[in-house]
Amino acid sequence: MKKFLFSLIGILAGFLVAALLFADLTPGKKATNEESSSANKSNAEKVYVPFGEKDEYYMMASGGHSGQLFVYGLPSMRKIRTVPVFTPDPATGYGFDKGTKNMLGGKTWGDFHHPSISETKGDYDGKFLFANDVGNNRVAAVDLKTFHTADIIDLPNMGGPHAGVFVTQNTEYVALPTRFARPLGGAYASLDKYKEEYKGVVSMAKFDQKKKKFSIDYQIVLPPWSYDLSDAGKKMSGDWIVMTTYNTEFATSNMEINASQKDRDYIVMVNWKKLAEEAKSGTKAKVVNGIKMIDPRDVKGSIYAVPVSKSPHGVDVTPDGEYFVAAGKLAPIMTVFSFEKAFDEMKKETKKEEFGIPVLKYENVMEREVDPPGALGPLHTQYDDKGNAYNTMFISSEIVKWNYKTGKVIDRTPTYYSPGHASAAEGDTVKPDGKWIVALNKLAKDNFLSVGPSHPESMDLIDISGKKMKHVMTAPVDPEPHYAQIIKADKIKTQKIYEKDEKRPFSTWNQKDARIVRKGNEVHVYGIAMRSKFIFDAKAKRKDEVTVNKGDKVFFHMTNIDLDQDITHGFAINDYDLNFEVQPGQTNTLEFVADKEGTFPIYCSNFCSALHQEMSGYLLVKP
Ligand code: RUQ
Ligand code: CUA
Fold first, then answer.
1. Are 480 and 494 in contact (CB under 8 A)?
2. Can you give the pLDDT at residue 11?
3. Mean pLDDT, residues 78-103
4. Which residues contact 127 (CB under 8 A, 6 or more apart)?
5. Are 183 and 257 in contact (CB under 8 A)?
6. Which residues pair with 526 in a beta bridge?
7. Which of 172, 515, 543, 572 is deepest in the core (most CB within 10 A)?
8. How far apart are the first and last CA of the chain?
9. Whose C-alpha lies nearest to ligand 1, atom 1?
10. Ligand 1 center to 182 CA (angstroms)
């Protein structure tokens, strides 16, 4: 993305502008240098959370190509946790124990871009967080009671679901538009057949919150354009999703030039409700690779295209649901479109573009174009509670505050440096808080102690409660927080421990029930982890010994019977490259083949008590 956009600067405005911009990025311009020390003190007070008190917000940031979720407290900007989602995490055994290993399905990498918290009536409800994996075509749900990944599914027919995740206003759907056009199912087709064989696909997934399971309800098949960050409507526009497109040129190589030829691309408006009804009871859906696919051209009134200035990046629906704002990327403007005007226009006879999608007249749907002088590279839009929009400007490294009803530019503040997204407190809901915005910057340059040629990315915390924005602090962050959502902390209701459930398969609650059961060459250990010992076989001479034969398939079904908050036990087998954990009240299974003979110490890898060091046992593998 960085490289891509930087090369676009050249196309956009030539070297002169670029030189000017880089001059702009020098640290000498930092606002903090000019501020008095008393202003710095008041900034420090704003982010200081005294011991015993807690942050007011959670910030859930995507971990980009780490495949993980980063959880921060706001305003302190303290990192609280990394939640493994798409990538194994040896420390917690995510991807090592049987359940999470199955969920990852052997994949070791993910590229998580856009977190989306479940919503009720257009407001974050704090129950689940959805995550997309652009790298391996997956979607995941994190249970915000435990901050554990609850389910992951593959999305067939897709080419990188970059333009999601976003949810419809009551989480009816988790929507994921694709980035790259690709033949359905990823089948082979020559790039010369791009227009005919390649498709853009949107997955409309459903998430069952009780069973904690995803399913793909239907997919929408679209022309082979590239779709960029998209959004769902709210209130009066609640039945619609809007998606930006680029590469309506159908370029198949040298994209930075070839996909930026036309002056206009499209915003695609899709009525998800109409398509859902069609998928449920209509006749138009075709099953491809096990999934119902609908071509919206077959369902009258379900799809429209609105021209927009070239290669837009994000499109964001306003909190009132009445407008959608496209950020220009290559044309340095923000364009406000009116849903009401679009709905009126849909009633008229419309022209069709070459794939037969009706095109609404730009002049009749566009409300205003906003072009702050010298602001370059608008990427994404956030909102406050007063009708203001905030745009990140990647190239001119700033946030621009403007009013979306009047188009008036109100304030601008520099960021350090090159923000992609910004995230406002409760920013994607029907009622944003208007207190904070965090710029998620792609660069940090010289802001922090050096760690060599590659620097961390950075985040700027900006106070937006007054008329003027106030840059409060900057913090380093691991690559790459593409996007984040900031939610009021009191909306998240975590569970203190896993509840004791006698009926849970494989769990063992009484010390005397710990046992080893052999079935052919399978050895099942129904074990207990507690402060400060393992019990594998209550009746044995040594209760913490397990002896198997080489080649046996071994299952450690471990239950942590310490029902006390924060008493997590680890379980590592020395020399076997295996580790996992059981949180209080949790049961987890480790399955492996004992393919190495010998004597292998087992130990608790998570410090749990004064006798943690003694919490150990032996695995003996007989030749
Ligand atoms: S898109 S930096 Cu991956 Cu979120 Cu705009
Ligand atoms: Cu259990 Cu350390």
1. no
2. 46
3. 97
4. 118, 143, 144, 145, 209
5. no
6. 515, 557
7. 572
8. 54
9. 229
10. 20
For 155, the token pair is 């999305």
* Ligand 1 contact, 569 CB (< 6 A): no
Integer Cα distance of 105 and 116 in angstroms: 23
Estimate to the nearest angstrom the gap between the alpha carbon of 535 and the chain centroid. Answer: 40
Beta carbons of 394 and 421 less than 8 angstroms apart? no
Give Cα 569 to chain centroid, integer Å: 29
pTM of the model: 0.93
CA 92 to ligand 1 center in whole angstroms: 29
Give residue 569 CA to ligand 2 midpoint distance, Å: 4
- Residues 300-320 have a mean pLDDT of 95
Task: Tell whether the model's pLDDT for residue 311 goes beyond 70.
Answer: yes
Q: What is the pLDDT of residues 158-198, one digit of tens each?
A: 999 999 999 999 999 999 999 999 999 999 999 999 999 99
**Separation of 589 CA from ligand 2 center, angstroms?**
17
Among 4, 176, 379, 395, say which to mutate for ligand 1: greatest number of ligand atoms within 8 Å of CB. 379
Name the residue among 140, 143, 136 with its Cα closest to residue 160: 136
The closest ligand to the CA of 61 turns out to be 1
Give residue 260's pLDDT. 84
Smallest-distance ligand from the CA of 570 = 2
Please name which ligand lies nearest the alpha carbon of 163: 1
Residue 492 CB less than 6 A away from ligand 1: no
Cβ < 6 A, ligand 2 pocket: 569, 604, 606-608, 612, 615
Q: Which ligand is nearest to the CA of 419?
A: 1
Q: Decide if pLDDT at 419 tops 80.
A: yes
pLDDT of residue 33: 53
* pLDDT tens digits, 426-469: 999 999 999 999 999 999 988 999 999 999 999 999 999 999 99
Atom in ligand 2 nearest the alpha carbon of residue 606: 2
Residues 173, 177, 178, 184, Cα dihedral to 10°:
60
pLDDT for the residue 479:
84
Token readout for 51 is: 């011991």
Q: Is 329 in the pocket of ligand 1 (CB under 6 A)?
A: no
Domains and CATH numbers, the chain: 511-622 (2.60.40.420)
- Among 438, 406, 428, CA closest to 334: 406
Assign 31 a pLDDT band (cuts: 50, 70, 90). Answer: very low
Residue having the nearest C-alpha atom to atom 4 of ligand 1: 482
Atom 5, ligand 1: residue with shortest CA distance:
420
The atom number, within ligand 1, closest to the CA of 134 reads 3
User: Three-state SS string across 2-25, please?
Assistant: HHHHHHHHHHHHHHHHHHHHHHHC
Ligand 1 atom closest to Cα of 113? 3
DSSP designation for 500: P
- Quote the ligand 2 centre to 535 CA distance (angstroms): 13
142: three-class secondary structure by DSSP:
strand
**By alpha-carbon position, which residue is closest to atom 1 of ligand 2?**
569
pLDDT tens by residue, 275-284: 999 999 999 9
pLDDT tens digits, 577-612: 999 999 999 999 999 999 999 999 999 999 999 999
pLDDT at residue 330 in the model: 83
Contact 442 CB / ligand 1 (< 6 Å)? no
Q: What integer pLDDT is reported at residue 35 of this predicted model?
A: 54
Determine how β-strand 334-338 pairs with β-strand 303-309. unpaired
